[in-house]
Write a structure and sequence with these properties.
Number of helices: 5
CATH superfamily: HUPs
Number of domains: 1
Shape: globular
CATH class: Alpha Beta
Radius of gyration: 17 Å
Amino acid sequence: MNAYKQILVAVDLSGDSQRVCRQALEVANGNGASIFLLHVVEIIYQVSVASEPMFYPAFEDISQNEEELIKLSKAKMADLIRGLQTGENVRIESDVISGIPKAEILRIAEEKQTDLIVCGSHGRSGFELLLGSTANAILHHAPCDVLAVRTKKNTE
């Protein structure tokens, strides 16, 4: 197995993120790798199909909501990192950005010259699978190896 030196860990900041991070830490400890934790805040814009397109909420509200979501996510990320027990040789960096998760994760993986992407996979099926998943997109388009950590199926 190739030694991994730069591991990108994509987290959704749910309760499953701790499990995903623990798996990444095991790999990192065994390889002396650095970890880059990434959370992508997905902002969904609603567009009206009226005769004149209107965006809801107003542009000012969108950027304000995005800033609030990023601030909240950064606090959750800090809590996640505090809860991790890292080895002596593991350096952890993190970032919270906004965008389309699968696109941003793949972009950052290339930018950081990542050797391995670790992400959670809910194992959805049926209609949920037809809609596509972030883990599936990463698996098929990543510029490096991918470790998909099975997490509990979301029943909400």
